[in-house]
UniProtKB/TrEMBL annotation:
It is found in: Membrane. Pfam families: Sulfate_transp. This is SulP family inorganic anion transporter. Residues 7-374 form the SLC26A/SulP transporter domain. It comes from Streptomyces cinereospinus. The chain crosses the membrane at residues 12-31, 78-96, 108-132, 152-176, 188-206, 237-260, 319-349, 369-396. It is a multi-pass membrane protein. The lineage of its organism: Bacteria, Bacillati, Actinomycetota, Actinomycetes, Kitasatosporales. Keywords: Membrane, Transmembrane, Transmembrane helix. The keyword NADP does not apply.
Amino acid sequence: MRAYPHLRQDLAASAVVFLVALPLCVGVAVASGVPAELGLVTGIVGGIVTGLLPGSSLQVSGPAAGLTVLVFEAVSEFGLPALGVIVLAAGVLQLLMGALKLGRYFRAISVSVVEGMLAGIGLVIIAGQLYAAAGMEAPASSIGKITGLPGAVVEAVGSTTALASIAVGAGTIAVMVSWRRLPAKARAVPGALAAVALATFAALALDLPVATVEVQGLIDSVQPPGADAFGELANPAMLGTILAFTLIASAESLFSAAAVDRLHDGPRTQYDKELMAQGAGNTVCGVLGALPMTAVIVRSSANVAAGARTKASRVLHGVWLLLFAALLPSALALIPLPALAGILVHAGWRLIPFQQIAALWRSHRGEALILVVTAVSIVAVNMFEGVLIGIALSVVKTAWEASHVKLEVVDKGAGPIQAHLSGNATFLRLPKILDSLEALPQDRPIELDLSGLHHLDHACRTALENWAERHSTSGTEPVKVTAP
């Protein structure tokens, strides 16, 4: 025990994390449109492979609800065999970025963009899983999922099978919401696991007509990508999907690491090493044809709260997942699909940062707008382009706020009019600058002093030079410009 002074704490924490991870691994896989066992494979790799590597000591990795939408779209467009290629390529890119020490730069992404991304993902998950909770087929597009809900409600009301399925899903959500209000001893069992167990028992005891998880077996589910799947790399659409997987999984993992660091007093995360650990895990997942992984804040916070002291807890949770997948795979076939849908609806709801939106609206409305636009763009277009729109808005907002410029005009009634520009003159402020300069009299000499500018971009310089050339009327001295 001296070699492992914290083994007791880590062993107990690993059991808690395993119980939290088990229903989430299965639920994320089913919602992603892949065999349930592949979610367990990713959880196993996240625990044993990524868990052994340096980076973050207490952060736990596995399949994440945040990538569900992207995985579902990728499998629908390219097929399940191509998923392994996408995840493998994303893992290699993460390894490369970590080796180039780019991990720390992910902290430069606007928090509003990340929270907007999570909110958009949450909305799409909720919309899609409401159909699954009713045992219905969800429309392909995100907009279609939302606009089709009223019709789905009408259809569900007239179907006893759909109503039974909805009851199981709603009951699962109710258990998860109320679980946190129970005494601490009862909460030793994670709410998600308790909800799934109760839903499974109710479905069996009442013989409810609800669909259950399809079981293929761990070995049959693992399908390494073949040569045909690698041929898809020539498809530009697949390259865009790989880039989306890489950026979103990396950002989610490193933001999760920052959040987990605030929960404990142990060693801080080494961002570049953590990015390489995530890359190694995704590379292995890709070789096995499994789901992509990220660090997951739900599991990580449960790990810290359960008293974990070292990375042994996350490695052991992967071992428990492996033993379950090897010894009790048939138990998955008893789980009702609407119960998993209920878990994902609850997870999607928690991804929407309602409190942050309200706080931002009161203090930084521009950031709140970026958050909302990012979320809406993800729902209206797709995740990758929605995130790019959010990043573009964030850059424009920052550039606008940084380009403060002041024009001071001194007119003593006689002699030349003096115009002093100070601050940062960029193309974003150019219309205001030119309006003020063009309002100056054209029949008097003007001295334009640019020495107070800290920055003058090319567009602004060219526009000011053109204004100076054409401003003065004939017979008036040309505008004199003092260079910055």
